[in-house]
Amino acid sequence: MAAPKKGRRPAGGQSRPGRALALILIAMVALTGGMFWSGHTTPRLGIDLAGGTSITLKAKAEPGQESAVNETNMNTAVGIIERRVNGLGVSEAEVQTQGRENIIVNIPKGTNEKQAREQVGTTAQLYFRPVLAVAAAEQPAPNPSATPSSSASPKPKASGATADKGKGDTTATPSASASTQGRAVSEALKAPSPTASSSASPKASTTPKPTQSGDAATNALQQKFAALNCLDPKQRAAAGQGVKPADPVVACGKNSLGQWEKYLLGPAEVDGKDVDDAKGVFDQQRGMWIVTMDFTGEGSKKFQKITGKLSQQTEPQNQFAIILDGEVVSAPSVRQTLSASAEISGSFNQQSAQDLGNILSYGALPLSFDTQSVDTVTAALGGEQLHAGLIAGAIGLALVILYLVIYYRGLSFIAILSLGVSALLTYVIMALLGPAIGFALNLPAVCGAIVAIGITADSFIVYFERIRDEIREGRTLRPAVERAWPRARRTILVSDFVSFLAAAVLFIVTVGKVQGFAFTLGLTTLLDIVVVFLFTKPVMTLLARTKFFGNGHKWSGLDPKRLGAKPPLRRSRRQSVSAAGPVDTKEA
Predict the structure, then answer these.
(1) Which residues share a beta bridge with 128?
(2) What is the per-residue pLDDT for 87?
(3) pLDDT of 306-348, one tens digit each?
(4) Which residues pair with 253 in a beta bridge?
(5) Residue 282's beta-bridge partner residues?
(6) Which is nearest to 229 in space by CA: 329, 139, 143?
(7) Pick from 503, 504, 495, 518: nearest CA to 444
(8) Neighbours of 538 (CB within 10 A)
(9) Does the predicted TM-score (pTM) go above 0.70?
(10) 530-561 confidence digits (pLDDT tens)
(11) Given the DSSP bridges, would you call strands 327-330 and 249-254 parallel, antiparallel or unpaired?
(12) Other Cβ atoms within 10 Å of 436 Cβ, number
């Protein structure tokens, strides 16, 4: 008989099970320590378990654009709102349409709940428009027909700044006289270029007779500018309503001193779709929070074109206004051509700067929305359902353990230990995923964890039955444990792969709470593989060396007589094989 090679491991053998046990023990200690170190010792709960806020938004169409409230735009708005809220770290938020013109947003209770409420309905329509005229909030706007001797009070410095990789002028000088502004307004509204020429003679400032529709529109816009009172919140909100991007507009905004001013602005040259990325950052040199914006390729070309024109003008026609939802948030001066990037500065703090960057990064909503209701959701109903679900899970776990004890006897000890390790890892990882990726535990996720009990127990049963099959064939326990592992391993991997694939598909094609079920199912499936490979198999290998299991005690669950094994048949098989001549002992 050929002697086995020295140091050769049995088929499927594991010569050092202590290594695997040490590895999983280190992982458990590290994860548990990280959980306590982070201060988050319990998983975050979803809105159905922890309560939160439910917001109802109603879409409204601009005059003449009633058809804009359609399924496509509503679905687009849902996606943008969901990305905005999740961008703040508020996971498990539910955003879905209700009827033709309503959107329901459910936000779980958490640290960023207030910010999320403020951002869900913000339209975030961003435009860059050239400044044609500026006046104080209540000051009558300059009349184009005014004589050169008339004047307006100097305008405070603008509250915005532009930046092109560190370049650009950040300071605005006092505005031009009223006659110059009026002259610029009249010429800019007639000229095809969005920038006004400030070199016209005083005679050109006289308003022509409104013999054409364009002249009438010009006069109407000037009158609207003159009548605008930016100290009135209602007038501020209605200033730019229903105006197309290609048309001039009047708007309000605050300067660096916090004072309201009114602006007459030309057609939009750049919009929010041309912004590739935006974020709130702290400017160390100026000691203030700003919002930086990087443009797309097409946006850079547009921005370069408009700043090139504006840099050749005088105050205030060398300014461009950054308009967000109809309000001027910044109106910087331009001294040279810019292209790559821009920044918005003003009275920002860290939260407001980061909020604005988050809004601009995910784009503008295709529709405007009115907040219909904001309701606080209590966790009373979810708590009752959770209590009932935990009772059902406890009953199911007790039945599984009872079955294991009756049928597998001593082997049930290994199964129960493995279930405990799996439960501990699941709990710790869920607690860590809350602050890490915003994972929140909801009722469907709890159901996924309960279903995982059966998946994990199934893996133990597969391995135990393979060991029993080997014992029935006449092998002793230690060889049976090692020989049964390769076949059981393949079955467990295939079974868990199918479960994980189903969970992944379910997570991708569904939204809302169902994703919580899919995520938990996928997580526990992966943990099942870790526990079986690094805990169940090594523990089984070590216990096979004990007398209780190795000698086949009747309460071990591996009693050869109870399993129907016939040791004499195995001895006679050895004798017949020996008589036949030398053979490889691998199968022995």
Answers:
(1) 270, 322
(2) 62
(3) 888 888 888 788 888 888 778 888 787 777 777 677 777 766 7
(4) 261, 328
(5) 289
(6) 139
(7) 518
(8) 20
(9) no
(10) 999 999 999 999 998 888 888 888 888 888 88
(11) parallel
(12) 13
Residue 488, classed as helix, strand or coil, is helix
Q: Of all helices (H) and strands (E), which one includes residue 289? A: strand 288-295
Question: Which residues neighbour 423 within 8 Å (Cβ) at sequence distance 6 or greater?
Answer: none
Closest to 159 (Cα-Cα) out of 172, 176, 174: 172
Calculate the CA 175 to chain-centre distance: 44
455 vs 446: CA distance, rounded Å: 15
Give me the residue label for tokens 């308009």: 323
Structure tokens at 145: 């027909």
How far apart, in whole angstroms, are the C-alpha atoms of residue 195 and residue 185? 10
Structure tokens at 242: 């229903």
Instruction: Spell out a b/e string for 510-532, using b for 16 or more CB atoms within 10 Å of the CB, else e.
Output: eebbbbbbbbbbbbbbebbbebb
Interatomic CA distance for residues 294 and 343, integer angstroms:
9
Q: What is the DSSP letter of 439?
A: -
Cβ atoms of residues 214 and 162 within 8 Å: no
CA distance 182 to 519: 63
Indicate the DSSP class of residue 64.
Answer: T
Residues 500-515, mean pLDDT to the nearest whole number:
84
